[in-house]
């Protein structure tokens, strides 16, 4: 059933883009032929190529000099300042996106030491939930929170953040619950977790604002909320780098992504875990790791009386 759906989506998209067929992939490049466009689209599952939009230069024409002397001179020294944004084009979709399967991160690429600057079109953003942030991206006591939690109520529709195609719909009992991953035409991927129901299926083409699912409380979740992640080639990005969650808008038209956006991973790498084995107590883990029991408790949000389940990971740095 899914295969048939995928095939239909692909075919429809290919015909659509073949008829349009005037996309340009690189700045100053001649437009690709229909055949080349089709080949590229086929590789990336019918995703619309990145638009080659240029930004208008910002031109300041105001006279800022309001001193008496210049007023006397009728402000004759107006010099328009042209602050031209050095912007050529949005980055092309990376080759690694030829991989299309149901893994959360099938790319296995670290961007911590990335040399490139990647330009991503975020102008088409639509808020997945218009409610408030309940928990932010970043370090929790014993683990890193790779996304941002947004309030949803039972029955709220979770909306797609950008145009794209659904790549994954799965259930993860201990983590994301019912979750969906959408690959977007701008190169980002988004994850929507803890939903109660899917409203879009693998291979579906979605516009920004289209329904992804229903807000829920599934998986590792206490209370109704949406866990929302933004990723590039499987690497989570702090959603606050891109989106203003108070105004529910993108912070800019273009997101300039560099290695700096993945700096937080260096901190994650410093975290060490002890996996609880049969007979382990906090005292024993403390002895083995050289970390005090009270430090272990505070790092893991537990007390001296917490029962340590075998296999549980206890953070000790
Ligand atoms: Zn979350």
What does this structure look like?
With 317 residues, this protein is an alpha+beta fold. Among the domains are: 118-269, Glucose Permease (Domain IIA), CATH 2.70.70; 272-315, Roll (Membrane-bound Lytic Murein Transglycosylase D, Chain A), CATH 3.10.350.10. Helices cover 18% and strands 26% of the residues. It has six helices and 21 strands. The protein has helices at residues 2-20, 34-43, 68-72, 264-270, 282-289, 293-300, and strands at residues 58-60, 81-83, 118-121, 133-135, 138-139, 144-145, 148-151, 157-159, 164-172, 177-184, 188-195, 197-198, 205-206, 211-214, 225-232, 235-237, 243-244, 249-250, 254-257, 273-275, 313-315. The strands form seven sheets. Strands 4, 7, 9, 10, 11, 13, 15 and 16 form an eight-stranded antiparallel beta sheet that branches. A three-stranded antiparallel beta sheet has the order 8-14-12, with no helix packed on it. Helix 1 (2-20) packs antiparallel against helix 2 (34-43). The radius of gyration is 24 Å and the shape is globular. Residues 16-30 and 45-86 have low confidence and may be disordered. The protein binds zinc ion. Zinc ion binds at residues 135, 145, 147, 149, 227.
